[in-house]
Amino acid sequence: MLPSLGPMLLWTTVLLFVPCVGKTAWLYLQAWPNPVFEGDALTLRCQGWKNTPLSQVKFYRDGKFLHFSKENQTLSMGAATVQSRGQYSCSGQVMYIPQTFTQTSETAMVQVQELFPPPVLSAIPSPEPREGSLVTLRCQTKLHPQRSALRLLFSFHKDGHTLQDRGPHPELCIPGAKEGDSGLYWCEVAPEGGQVQKQSPQLEVRVQAPV
């Protein structure tokens, strides 16, 4: 009479469901949008392999603890800045019947791309114009090619006062420059409806008396 195979079959079945820890990427970290630009709402998600349930989720940046959640696998990072760059990872308890074990994801590099460089303010034809001449202040910057459809708004300031609040024109004209127009000027640029704002270095304008 052949021996019963019941216990052996049961043991084989259990082995098929025990995960091979260390050989399977049980967790992985997703960051979106991709690519990420300054001002984008950056979101991280700690995802289990084949949507395996997770708990006790922890997020890390550059190896340092960032956030803990008992159940939520998603972390909102707010508006991305250049300082948001880094190596991100997550850990969590993976619930895989018949056991629960803690796993850590591989690191994911998050690169936050510059939406546009800081503007540069110039005075045309010169920052030392003759009294009575026309001076044009030009605020120059350029959107990243992948975000070229955005609309930039420009502001002009002098000695702590606003000359032109946010508008679509990157130039400001000073007709008939006079001595009172001398001073420190700068401009600010921001995308319409966005959270990124950048300021130019100050430019000193000195109106010269006529010869």
Account of the 3D structure:
The structure is a single chain. This protein is mainly beta and 211 residues long. The protein folds into two domains: 20-113, Immunoglobulin-like; 120-205, Immunoglobulin-like (Sandwich). It is built from one helix and 18 strands. Strands 4, 5, 7, 8 and 9 form a five-stranded antiparallel beta sheet that branches. Strands 13, 14, 16, 17 and 18 form a five-stranded antiparallel beta sheet that branches. The longest helix is centred in the N-terminal third of the chain and has 12 residues, at 6-17. The chain starts with 5 loop residues before the first helix and ends in a 6-residue tail after the last strand. The relative contact order is 0.16. Residues 1-24 form the signal peptide. GO terms for molecular function: transmembrane signaling receptor activity. This is Ig-like domain-containing protein.
